[in-house]
Amino acid sequence: MAEKIALYSYGMYLIHALVLYLVFMALGIRNFVFGPLLFIGLTMVASFLTYHFLEPPLIDLGRKLSSRLPRRPVALPAQKTHVGS
Questions:
Q1: Integer CA distances (angstroms), 40 to 4, 12, 33, 37, 77, in order
Q2: Residues 55, 8: contact at Cβ < 8 Å?
Q3: Given pLDDT bands bounded at 50, 70 and 90, which one contains residue 85?
Q4: pTM score, whole prediction
Q5: Residue 3: its pLDDT value, please?
Q6: What is the CB neighbour count within 10 angstroms for residue 31?
Q7: Distance between CA 72 and CA 54 in Å, rounded?
Q8: Which residue from 9, 5, 43, 8 is spatially nearest to 23, judged by alpha carbons?
C-alpha cells in the first residue's frame, strides 16, 4: 500500500490545489462532509490519471529531446591531496 501512495504522492501534490479550487470555488460546495470527501476522491483519481497517462509520454519526450543534445564530459571536482607534515 505504501508503494502505491508513493507512486501517486507527487501527482497529488501537484494537482491538489487545482482540485481544491474546483471543488470549493468553481463548484461552490459548502457541505463539510461531502466537500472534503469529493476533494480527496478527485485528487486521488486525478493523480492516478496523470501518473499513468501524462507522465509516461512526457518522460519519453524528455528522453528523446535529451538524446539529441551533444554529450559533454562532466567535470569532476579535483580531489584534495593531503600532504603529511
A1: 16, 9, 11, 5, 47
A2: no
A3: low
A4: 0.70
A5: 85
A6: 9
A7: 30
A8: 43
